[in-house]
Structures are given as C-alpha cells and as structure tokens.
UniProtKB/TrEMBL annotation:
It is a multi-pass membrane protein. The lineage of its organism: Eukaryota, Metazoa, Chordata, Craniata, Vertebrata. This is LMBRL protein. The keyword DNA repair does not apply. It comes from Cepphus grylle. It is found in: Cell membrane; Endoplasmic reticulum membrane. Pfam families: LMBR1 (PF04791). One of its GO terms (molecular function) is transmembrane signaling receptor activity. The chain crosses the membrane at residues 12-38, 58-88, 108-125, 145-168. GO terms for biological process: receptor-mediated endocytosis; Wnt signaling pathway.
Length: 187
C-alpha cells in the first residue's frame, strides 16, 4: 500500500537512491572486512587488542584521516541499524516487536534487554571486524578471545562470506524478478 501511495519522486528517485546507498554501505563494510582479513594474515598487530597510551586527538584511528573517521562512524551506525532490523526480522523474535498502544510490560522489558545486549555488543563487533580501532572507554580489547587468531579470523570470514551471500541473493533475486516481469509481460 505504501508503495502505491508514494509520490513518483519517491518511487523513481528516493527508493533507488536509498537502495544504492544501502548497497554501497554493505559493499564498503565487506571490503573493509576483507582488507582486515588480509591484515590478519600478514600482520599480528591487526588483532583487535587494546590500545596502550593512545591519546585522543594526537593519534588518528583511520588511515584516511577525518574522512576515514567519518566513514567509520557512518558504517558503525549502519551496522547498528542493520543489526536491529535483522534481529527483529528473524522468525524467533518477530513476536517481540512492539505494537502501537498495545504492548504489554513484559514485551517492553524484553525489547529493552534485547536493545541493551545489541548496543553492548556493537563496540566489540566493530573492533573484531576491523571497522574501527577506537577502544572507547570500556577497553574492550582486554577480552581474552580477541587475542585468539582463529576466532577473529573465522568471525571476519563468516561476516564477509554471509554478507556477500545475502547481498548477491537479494540483488540477483530482485534483478531476476524484474527480468521475469519485463519478459513475462511481452511474451
């Protein structure tokens, strides 16, 4: 219903630009993770351990300076939103979605706990994937498993592989449906 009620500007310009933006953010995050995998294979310093004595403002946490730092912030925000959307889209947690003016207190508490767990995992998630080296105030680099090469390597490979698979599946199915629709109408 919303697609049919959308203005021609939204349908012809807004939705395609939003999809291109999402594809670009997903592609950039996969590329960064792939480069992090190469770093892991070549250099032990790429492991997501804590940073010792790095003063804020004196050391850049990105190779590309301010642009890289802004890109990291955008990617972390994108990962946060996509994690929440993915969480609530999974079949196990669709019942946890709040309903307007009809949400029981237990469901509200469940949502609060879920969002707290997701937001607490985000800094470790970002550091493990190599999207940022910023340590925040929690010093998340002290977790013992972050020093285990195999866990970090498999985590990065799993993210890159599964994200690429989902991206290819989603894009190829959309293109395939459009081709079938276009050729199906003519034939």
């Amino acid at each position: 219903e919303l697609r049919h009620q959308a203005s021609p500007w939204q349908r012809n310009l807004g939705y395609p630009l939003a999809m291109l933006g999402l594809l670009a953010l997903t592609g950039i995050s996969v590329l960064i993770v792939c480069f992090h995998v190469l770093e892991l294979l070549l250099d032990d310093a790429a492991m997501p351990r804590g940073i010792q004595d790095a003063s804020l403002g004196q050391v850049s946490f990105s190779i590309f300076g301010s642009f890289g730092a802004a890109l990291q912030v955008i990617l972390i925000f994108y990962l946060m939103v996509s994690s929440v959307v993915g969480f609530y889209s999974s079949p196990l947690f669709t019942r946890l979605l709040p309903e307007r003016q009809d949400t029981p207190l237990t469901k509200i508490i469940g949502n609060c706990v879920s969002l707290l767990v997701l937001s607490s995992a985000l800094p470790v998630f970002s550091r493990t994937l190599g999207i940022t080296r910023f340590d925040l105030l929690g010093d998340f680099g002290r977790f013992n498993w972050l020093g285990n090469f195999y866990i970090v390597f498999l985590y990065n490979m799993g993210f890159a592989g599964l994200t690429t698979l989902c991206l290819v599946k989603r894009v190829s199915w959309a293109v395939q449906a459009e081709l079938i629709r276009a050729f199906g109408e003519d034939g």
